[in-house]
Amino acid sequence: MFYPDRQKEKRCFLAAGSGITPCYSLIRTLLGAPQAKIILLYSNRSEKDTIFYHALKQLQENNKDRLNIHFMFSNRLEVPERQLRRQISSYYGAL
Q1: Scanning 14, 57, 73, 89, which has its CA 20 to 30 A from the CA of 20?
Q2: The Oxidoreductase FAD/NAD(P)-binding domain covers which part of the protein (predicted)?
Q3: Residue 71 forms part of a structural domain
Q4: Are 62 and 13 in contact (CB under 8 A)?
């Protein structure tokens, strides 16, 4: 069994498509710890194709200061690598 270390405050998740399933479960578990701060970069074809889209938006709304989600859709303009690095670095410091 996997038991996440709840003592670590900051986490970053990268997911695409159905790869969100284990991340979603871990994020919900980690948010049980009041000190948890999480960023999720989640890529899909479109908003319509996004698994857990509404549930994730609600989770983010309920945890505004602790959960930061960036949805990226391939049917729109691509997010450049430099922008992704900047988003992660601004959250965690220089990589």
Answers
A1: 89
A2: 13-72
A3: yes
A4: no
* pTM exceeds 0.70: yes
Contact 41, 70 (CB under 8 A): yes
> Which residue range is the domain that position 84 belongs to?
10-92
Q: Is residue 20 in some structural domain?
A: yes
CATH at residue 87: 3.40.50.80
d(C-alpha 59, C-alpha 13), whole Å: 15
How do residues 8-34 score in pLDDT, each as one tens digit?
688 999 999 999 999 999 999 999 998
Amino acid (one-letter) located at 55: A
d(CA 95, CA 18): 27
Domain count along the chain: 1
